[in-house]
Design goal:
The protein is an alpha/beta fold. The protein has helices spanning about 5-30, 60, 85-95, 110-120, 145-165, 175-180, 235-245, 245-250; strands at about 45-50, 65-75, 80, 95-105, 130-135, 170, 190, 205-215, 225-230.
């Protein structure tokens, strides 16, 4: 049987489509990823987690080279993460450095968002600073720059006043350029950068880096098989100094 040029073209096209789908699957499922920071340069690794990971065995997580965990506590003015209390307690028992984060809402007042977080997260010394997660969750009608900055100032001040620690801002490059660059909001930066290491232009310099939002570890049973992977900018000694407490002592208390 003679194979025509058209048939060869269709076969090649189908092969290309199947290959593209296969590559997309292994990337989307976290089997392979673009970024893999040097463990020598970035030895301190962590995760951030929420109800999407379901029930988490934090002892198993800790055994996979994980030092710290940021756990979702709240979102906006009235939403709490159903797994926060369990994750907070068990991650601490596993000897991890643990902090809580709040997903910032562009549609709620800073005062009510602060009240939501404060009602959920204990005020204890042996915890990492509170985090505000600032990222776009809609593509139309972007929020007013000045209004967002003012809300952030109020929220950051409330968190620092209650917990006695300068908060961390988790954000993307786009949000940093829109709302943070050139302002006096000089808080600890946690940058999401999934293709390359964060740029040196960030001010202040970044401290945490989310390098893989589709990581895969053992120890959780949620509907999402992926988990966010992060690293700290510095040595283990630098991290201990940043945290200011011993997690093993915290776990025993």
């Amino acid at each position: 049987m003679t194979v025509t040029k058209k048939q060869r073209f269709l076969a090649a096209l189908i092969a290309l489509v199947l290959c593209t789908l296969a590559v997309w699957y292994v990337i989307d499922s976290g089997v392979i990823w673009f970024n893999m920071p040097s463990s020598k340069k970035y030895p301190v690794r962590g995760v951030d987690a929420s109800h999407y990971q379901g029930s988490i065995d934090w002892d198993t997580i800790a055994k996979q080279g994980i030092t710290f965990a940021f756990i979702k506590a709240t979102e906006g003015s009235g939403t709490g993460d159903d797994c926060f209390a369990e994750n907070w307690e068990n991650a601490r028992k596993a000897g991890l450095y643990v902090g809580a984060y709040h997903f910032f809402s562009f549609d709620s007042s800073a005062e009510t968002q602060a009240a939501n977080f404060i009602s959920a997260v204990p005020d204890i010394e042996d915890a990492l600073p509170p985090v505000i997660d600032l990222e776009f969750y809609r593509s139309d009608n972007l929020p007013d720059v000045n209004a967002v900055r003012e809300s952030l100032r109020i929220l950051l001040a409330r968190f620092q006043g209650i917990y006695g620690k300068k908060p961390i801002i988790y954000t993307t490059r786009q949000c940093w350029e829109t709302y943070l660059s050139g302002t006096d909001l000089s808080y600890t930066l946690w940058i999401r950068s999934i293709f390359t290491a964060p740029s040196e232009e960030f001010s202040p310099e970044w401290t945490f880096w989310q390098y893989n939002p589709r990581g895969r570890l053992e120890g959780y049973s949620g509907g999402d098989v992926r988990i966010d992977l992060n690293t700290f900018r510095g040595s283990m000694e630098d991290f201990r100094s940043f945290a200011g407490y011993d997690p093993l002592s915290a776990a025993a208390s």
